[in-house]
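Form 7-S
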Amino acid sequence: MITVASLTVRFGGVVPIADMTVSMGAGVNGLVGPNGAGKTTFFNVLSGFVRPAAGTVSAYGDDLLAMPHFRRVRWGLRRTFQTEQAVAELTVFENVLTMLEHSGAPASGRRSVVMEALDFVGLADRADTAVGGLGAAERRLVEVGRAVVGSPRIILLDEPAAGLPDEETADLGRIIRQIPELTGALTVLVDHDMELVADVCDRLAVLDFGHVIATGPTREVLDDPRVMAAYLGDEQIEEVAS
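Output:
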């Protein structure tokens, strides 16, 4: 559903993405790599915040790069960010409702659509609570609720489990795993928690210095020596093997 061909991004002399070619299909796709590998830059390209120097991105047969960033929301692109975007002064319900403003969803029935998203992430009973009064895990769930509301076609999750303890990460993982079933959206997860990635992702692509070094079924990719080397370094791989 997403086909990326020869994608290159340059910031002056820095090339965070270099000739990236990858395909992502239905379900939950993982995109991982060391810090600075180009993962968030890739999300920024898909979102329209960064214009690539070269390459193409086709999503559901449409030229995603030809759309202005504000039209991509109406088209069905959603994302979360590494830093929280929910407005602390607004209620949980109001935060999720704001995501429908430019989605093309009819005004009538918006309440039920929002409540469906909140029920999915387990926050229906906190709908009238100000986001600023929530704990870290619940605020993350608000972000996910904002991403799944309405009729998204692509959902990009950028480090949704950052800073969460294991138990709350596991709960979040169960929700992420169900996103395609709820929405039908192709979901892409970026996270450094490899246990989470292994649990929820059907397929995995690995970036290293802007290059895709491995792609395929998640378990096969995680066992790839090139991937282990990118994360641990060749010397540590040799120590583990010995």
